[in-house]
Amino acid sequence: MFCDLNFNIKNTLSKLFGLLIVLALLGASPVSARDFTIVASPQEPFKFRSDGEYMGIDVEVIQEVMKRLGVSYTIKLIKSDARIQEEAKKGKVDMLLLYSKKESRMAFLTYPEQSYVDISWNFFIRAEDEGKISYDTLDDLRAYTIGITKDVSYTTEFMEAGLKFETAPRNDLQIGKLLANRFDLVPLNTISTLYEQKNAGNLDKIAYLPKPLKTKPYYNVFVKASDFPGIAAMPAKYDQIIQELKSDGTIKAIFSKYLGDK
Hints:
D-Maltodextrin-Binding Protein, domain 2; 12 strands; Amino acid ABC transporter substrate-binding protein (PAAT family); Solute-binding_3/MltF_N; signal
């Protein structure tokens, strides 16, 4: 019986050793079998869940990127940004979605070159005023009443320009006040406002001035502490794919799906 047990152990070890050799020859390892883990905070229209499915601009862009990379992945939404960054520092995740560049983050995140999202705040106006109101400098706005929201961080230059303001307690009140002629224009988060007004059926009633009050690029970032096989080479491949998605119209089509053609 002891001889049979000894034979079975040797036989099992021999098969395991053979399997490891095959995996090595194929350039694989047991670690690479896991999914690439992507984490983000929920934020419409970029990443959110609807009827149990992940949806949003970033979700669809990443889906296309991972398909072209040939990488199996999992997306998780976590409400706490502090927790997300802690998970990244510990190497428990591989990528974070939609992060602006900050010096404090450079120690644990690798930023790609390519961004497809600029979070901008543009001045929204009524559709009938398009072509009548222009904005190149803040002096161009002196003749108008501008809606602003309490406790929102605008630019210092804007707030100290001596313009005429009407203040509201919440951003979600501003388009209604604009359409009710309470003021002439209002600076709002451009992408979020377009998404909200598309869902509200108001896109044909509003327009926005092309020059933003402020803007900042956001990136999908790679985690430096990640042990995912080949992650060091992924940012360069990611940049190439994002350029392709911009050139072939894929990203534009995804934005139009969520925001309309404004």
